[in-house]
Amino acid sequence: MSPHAAGRRHVHRLVATGLPVALMAALATAGPATASSSADARVVHTATLGDLPLGTFSNGLLPGSVDNDRGVDLGGIGSDIYPAARKGEYWTVTDRGPNGQIKVDGQKRRTFPVPGFDPAIVKIQVSGDAVKVIDAIPLTTSSGQAVTGLPDQKGRDEAPYTYDAGTSLPYDPNGVDTEGIVRAADGTFWLVDEYGPSLIHVSARGEVLTRYVPKGLHLTGAEYPVVEALPSVLLHRKINRGFEGLAQLPDGNLVMALQSPLSLPDADAGDTSRTTRLLRFSPRKKAVTAEYAYRFDPVNVVDPSEDDTAELKVSSVVAVGRDRLLVEERTDKTARIQLVKLERRADILGGPWDDDTTSPSPEQLDDPAAAGVPVLAKRLVVDLGKVSGVPGKIEGIARVDRDTLALINDNDFGMTDGAGAFDAQGRLVDSGIETTVTYVRLPKAI
After folding, report:
1. pLDDT beyond 80 at 94
2. 35-81, pLDDT tens digit by residue?
């Protein structure tokens, strides 16, 4: 097929999904594929998302939702990636939208330059060296309003501010900081969120059907059903480090991954701990059915340039069998992918290690296994830091076939922290980091 014919087919498909012509016209192509590395694993292909104004994208889904995108392009879709039915097509999800931090009087303030942004499910197609948007679904409340990406609760979540950190913004109990995504057999979606942390069931049209949150969260005012069905110990999640990864097992059950160790009993324990948690959820029972302790490698093993344990994160989990899971351990610079088996004997749900009054907590223990905490055994699959051509901040992983993975990075909408993120006219000074899908061939099948 000629490039022109391929382009016409792409436009036709976008029109069929109802996306505006201006949005279609803004899609661009990228550079050539990346060369292979000297390691056993190698990059075999790279594709890049072109520039698409965020206002054009958002208003094409929910007219009038964004009045000023401040020069920000669509990004952040690298929060996760999940295979769609056709080869080369994937479901992705944005996070809460453009955000940064600016210090005011010595204190960091969380900024939301485009507060009207509505997190969205975005279907992409890898076509040659380009990543194309072929569908997009806005997340909405029961009444069809945007959920927004603004924080939920004063005192629990970071206070939101305008782009320059000069004016406070309102909290939004509907707001979500979406990260992981899977698509169920019935066409609905499951997402995870950092704020609650929460598990969110979404219709095929994007309506939030139910948001499952920890017992005792007491989130009020949301315009969709909120159910306290998750363990209360999750109330100790670190700010901006709630659920990050989500996997769907062959039986339809879900596995959620906390990005970082719980702040249990306090922030110091969470910052120095290498023990985070995975939870299994049954959509049929609408309940958590298992909980597991997961142990990070030392931070300088994951990232030889880093010495701060608090920089360790789990960003993606992928099912590769009935009870096997790929787990991505990362810093912002690099990542390693581990293989774990979710064994029944490792379940800590309902026991002392699932109780926030237990002292010391699993997060405080230097050697949890020696203290009787069953920790998931793991095996290294690939060290992405040793694979040439893999970008930083990989947040989404999909299994293409038995020996190939698709990786997607979070480019943070081109945002950086600090007062210099925007120019004197309030327009973004773009970081230049693009959203890319990178295919890595592994030396062995998984």
Report:
1. yes
2. 333 358 999 999 999 999 999 999 999 999 999 999 999 999 999 99
Reading the block at residue 247, the tokens are 């996997």
Which residue's structure tokens are 């120019």?
423
As beta bridge partners, residue 103 has 108
Q: Under DSSP, is residue 193 helix (H, G, I), strand (E, B) or coil?
A: strand
What DSSP assignment string belongs to 355-414?
-TT-SS-GGG-SSTGGGT--B--EEEEEEGGGSTTPPS-EEEEEEEETTEEEEEE--GGG
Which residues, including other chains, have CB under 8 Å from residue 205's CB and lie 6 or more apart?
137, 140
Structure tokens at 37: 């590395």
Q: Would you mind telling me the total number of residues written for the chain in this entry? A: 446
Q: How far apart are CA 274 and CA 405, in angstroms?
A: 26
Rounded Cα gap, residues 243 and 265, in angstroms: 19
DSSP E strand boundaries for 140-295:
160-161, 178-183, 189-193, 198-202, 208-214, 226-230, 243-248, 254-258, 275-282, 287-295
| Tokens of residue 433, six digits | 């980091």
HSE-CB at 43 with a 13 A cutoff on CA atoms is 22
Q: What does the block give as tokens for 139?
A: 């997340």
- Closest among 65, 46, 44 to 56, alpha carbons compared: 65
Q: Are 398 and 126 in contact (CB under 8 A)?
A: no
> Who's near 147: CB < 8 A, 6+ residues apart?
118, 119, 139, 140, 141, 172, 174, 175, 176, 208, 224
Rg (CA), the chain: 21
Pairing of strands 324-330, 81-83: unpaired
Closest CA to 161 of 103, 114, 110, 97: 110
* Average pLDDT, rounded, for the chain: 92
The answer to whether residues 191 and 243 touch, using CB atoms and an 8 Å cutoff, is: no
Peptide bond into 360 cis (omega under 30): yes
Find out whether 96 and 119 touch, Cβ atoms under 8 Å. yes
CA angle 368, 370, 375 (to 5 degrees): 45
Give the C-alpha separation, 165 to 426, whole Å: 12
Q: Which residues contact residue 163 at a Cβ distance below 8 angstroms, ignoring those fewer than 6 apart?
A: 70, 111, 112, 113, 421, 422, 426
Tell me the CA distances in angstroms from 299 to 79, 230, 305, one per residue in order.
22, 29, 9
* Mean pLDDT of all residues in 341-353: 97
Rounded to whole angstroms, the Cα distance separating 222 from 142 reads: 10
Cβ-contact 245, 314 below 8 angstroms: yes
Q: How far apart are CA 411 and CA 434, in angstroms?
A: 6
